[in-house]
């Protein structure tokens, strides 16, 4: 425990110191980095501004015309050759096209006419303010760069427009390297006092927690039952000293309490044992009383149950009798309704018989009319045959007249025309007579079929009449039988009504008997319950006495564990 507490406190303090150092280091690094980054940018655009003097006004005009780019690029080598911290120098047009570049940028794979990445915001500020500036760190051409931008004015006159931009590149890694060079010594020196402070802190914490270890050992002894007088030799006047004094006072009070409990527990065990024996004897006596009362209550309860069963059976019988009476009344109503329906059926049968007679008479009349039609069709057929014969003779006469007209020559032409018309009329009459004969034949066939159907219908009507008469007789028999059944059911309903009244009286008597048995059973159960409650209370007291006895023994066992 001592080591754990010591190391935990030490780690907390050291962690706070480390965190402070890390935060301070990060802040220092960022401040140095920003300062060096700004210094690199200022140095880059300052040199870019100064080295514009390497170019004459004629050189600028040639560059804009795309002439002497290699020669002018050689002049730019002077800057990096004299200050190796720079990576390269080159001239850009306002839209970012390389106009001239030194050999260092050529080695990186660039050439005149290439489009070079620029910081748009920095270029915009340079054009608007006509002032040198530098870019943010950006990656292009396989390296991270810081570019210093300086405006190149026409004829080197700042009052004229900007015609190109002089650019010098820094390798951005130099900023990180120089920043680390600046801050690393301070960081390393900061760790030395930190280590010293950590060691000294652990020493102080360990020294201060040693009395706590002694108190922990004392509490372990008390936990194991050793509460004898103990000298801890802790004389400090701080919270630890107060804790040691209070712990010993607690041990003294605990010794007094344990001693008192031990004496009381022994007396309690003796008293509880005597009480438990007395309670067991009383409980045994009440058990016999309770058993006898339970037997009385059981027999009374069985009698009540048998009475209840008899009452239920009689009530069920009464319900069945009432149900039989209701069903008998319903049967009377149904039988009377059936008899009424049978009477109505007989009346309907008589009506059907009358209608069947009318149908039979109509069928006979229809049969006679169709016979008359058959006679008429025979006469029509004879007339058509006579017309056909006359037409044939007329046709023959017309033919003879035509022959005679031909013999008469010119004088017989008019007669020949008339004879021809007569012949045509005779042929037409013969044709129409044939059609009429066909129609008459069809009508005759239909009449013959109709006569057969009517004869069949007449037979069915006669059979239906016979069936209806038989149905009427059957309904009459049903009505007579139902009438007898109604009389018998009415008699049965009257008897059932008397039985229902008698069963209700019996049920009432049994209910009174059941109530008396229930009252007797309840009294017996109350006596038994009271006895059982008393027995239960005594048993509870005996049980509690046993429990107290057990607890007293356990308490003695626990108290004996302490060393006074």
Automatic annotation (TrEMBL):
Domain HAMP span(s) in chain numbering: 206-259
Gene3D superfamilies: 6.10.340.10, Methyl-accepting chemotaxis protein
Matches recorded under CDD domains: HAMP
Keywords per UniProt: Cell membrane, Membrane, Transducer, Transmembrane, Transmembrane helix
The name this protein goes by in its record: Chemotaxis protein
Record-level GO BP terms: signal transduction
Lineage, top ranks: Bacteria, Bacillati, Bacillota, Bacilli, Bacillales
Species of the source: Metabacillus litoralis
Protein family (similarity comment): Belongs to the methyl-accepting chemotaxis (MCP) protein family.
Xref: PROSITE patterns: CHEMOTAXIS_TRANSDUC_2, HAMP
A Pfam family assignment: HAMP
GO cellular component, one term: plasma membrane
Regions crossing the membrane: 7-29, 186-205
Methyl-accepting transducer domain residues: 278-514
UniProt keyword Chloroplast, yes or no: no
């Amino acid at each position: 425990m001592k080591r754990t507490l010591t190391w935990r406190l030490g780690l907390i303090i050291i962690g706070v110191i480390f965190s402070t150092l890390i935060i301070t280091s990060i802040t220092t690094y960022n401040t140095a980095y920003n300062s060096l980054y700004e210094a690199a940018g200022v140095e880059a655009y300052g040199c870019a501004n100064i080295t514009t003097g390497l170019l004459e006004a004629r050189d600028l005009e040639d560059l804009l015309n795309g002439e002497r780019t290699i020669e002018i690029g050689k002049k730019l080598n002077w800057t990096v050759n004299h200050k190796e911290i720079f990576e390269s120098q080159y001239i850009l047009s306002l839209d970012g096209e390389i106009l001239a570049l030194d050999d260092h940028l050529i080695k990186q794979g660039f050439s005149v006419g290439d489009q070079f990445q620029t910081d748009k915001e920095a270029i915009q500020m340079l054009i608007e303010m006509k002032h040198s500036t530098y870019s943010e760190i950006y990656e292009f051409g396989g390296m991270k760069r810081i570019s210093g931008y300086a405006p190149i004015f026409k004829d080197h006159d700042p009052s004229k427009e900007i015609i190109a931009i002089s650019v010098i590149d820094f390798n951005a890694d130099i900023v990180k390297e120089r920043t680390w060079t600046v801050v690393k010594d301070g960081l390393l020196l900061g760790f030395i006092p930190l280590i010293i402070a950590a060691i000294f802190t652990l020493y102080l914490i360990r020294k201060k927690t040693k009395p706590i270890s002694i108190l922990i050992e004392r509490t372990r002894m008390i936990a194991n039952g050793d509460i004898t007088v103990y000298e801890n030799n802790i004389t400090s006047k701080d919270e630890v000293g107060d804790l040691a004094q209070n712990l010993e006072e607690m041990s003294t009070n605990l010794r007094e309490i344990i001693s008192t409990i031990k004496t009381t527990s022994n007396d309690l065990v003796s008293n509880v044992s005597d009480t438990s024996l007395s309670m067991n004897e009383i409980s045994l006596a009440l058990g016999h009383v309770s058993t006898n009362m339970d037997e009385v209550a059981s027999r009374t309860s069985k009698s009540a149950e048998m009475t209840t069963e008899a009452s239920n059976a009689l009530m069920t019988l009464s319900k069945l009798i009432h149900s039989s009476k209701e069903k008998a009344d319903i049967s009377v109503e149904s039988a009377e309704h059936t008899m009424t329906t049978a009477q109505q059926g007989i009346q309907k049968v008589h009506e059907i018989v009358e209608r069947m007679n009318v149908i039979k008479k109509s069928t006979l009349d229809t049969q006679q009319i169709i016979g008359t039609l058959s006679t008429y069709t025979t006469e029509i057929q004879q007339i058509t045959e006579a017309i056909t014969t006359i037409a044939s003779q007329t046709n023959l006469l017309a033919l003879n007249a035509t022959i005679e007209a031909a013999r008469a020559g010119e004088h017989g032409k008019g007669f020949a025309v008339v004879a021809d018309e007569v012949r045509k009329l005779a042929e037409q009459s013969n044709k129409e007579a044939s059609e009429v004969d066909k129609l008459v034949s069809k009508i005759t066939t239909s009449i013959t079929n109709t006569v057969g159907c009517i004869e069949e219908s007449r037979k069915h009507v006669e059979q239906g009449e016979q069936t209806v008469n038989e149905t009427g007789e059957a309904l009459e028999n049903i009505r007579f039988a139902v009438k007898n059944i109604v009389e018998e059911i009415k008699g049965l309903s009257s008897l059932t009504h008397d039985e229902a009244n008698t069963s209700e009286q019996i049920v009432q008597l049994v209910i009174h008997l059941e109530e008396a048995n229930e009252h007797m059973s309840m009294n017996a159960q109350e006596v038994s319950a009271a006895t059982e409650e008393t027995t239960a209370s005594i048993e509870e007291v005996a049980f509690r006495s046993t429990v107290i006895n057990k607890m007293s023994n356990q308490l003695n066992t626990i108290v004996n564990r302490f060393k006074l």
